[in-house]
TrEMBL record:
Domain N-acetyltransferase per the UniProt entry, residue ranges: 1-169
Record GO terms (molecular function): acyltransferase activity, transferring groups other than amino-acyl groups
Keywords per UniProt: Acyltransferase, Transferase
Organism annotation: Natrialba aegyptia DSM 13077
UniProt name for this protein: N-acetyltransferase GCN5
Claim: Transferase is one of the keywords in the record: yes
């Protein structure tokens, strides 16, 4: 497995991996209606813009020649009022075919390494309920929970609980 910085040509594979991760793993913690609303945002998401943005660091995990995971770090304070971190982990998703095989951890480690290179001292994120244990295993602490509209940019009107987390580096 290789974890590398994403390039614009990776956008379609990232979209496919993102949707598969949500639809097949999201039902561990959310209803089918919530998962469908969450996955709806993948179709309109502009992965290329994120890849090309100077504020984003987006990586992909390549397993046996195919993209099987991705992660994103935004080097700017999260939008939440109580945010005190310099950066936010906005994504760590893996394809269900490689779930719980260490791919997500390798992606996350790449994001944290980049944060360290940028002298970032704390990271925050908003985790789906099914990802809380993963982030706890990487040293995150829960700082709260909030009601979230899944794919809010699509105005789905479908809500669920997500968990705000933080880690000091």
């Amino acid at each position: 497995m290789e974890v590398r910085e994403a390039v614009p040509d990776d956008a379609d594979a990232i979209r496919t991996t993102h949707a598969a991760s949500i639809t097949e793993l999201g039902t561990e913690s959310y209803s089918q209606e919530q998962v469908d609303a969450w996955a709806a945002g993948c179709e309109s998401a502009d992965y290329t813009a994120a890849i090309e943005s100077p504020d984003h660091y987006l990586v992909v995990a390549v397993v046996d020649g195919s993209i099987r995971g991705f992660g994103s770090l935004v080097v700017a304070a999260p939008e939440a009022d109580e945010a005190t971190a310099d950066a936010e982990v906005t994504a760590v998703y893996v394809h269900p075919s490689v779930a719980r095989e260490g791919v997500g951890s390798r992606i996350y480690e790449s994001l944290e390494r980049r944060a360290g290179e940028r002298d970032i001292t704390a990271l925050e994120l908003t985790a789906s309920q099914n990802a809380v244990a993963f982030y706890r295993s990487h040293g995150y602490e829960r700082i709260g929970a909030t009601r979230h509209e899944f794919s809010g940019h699509e105005s789905t009107g479908v809500y669920g609980t997500v968990v705000e987390m933080r880690k000091e580096l």
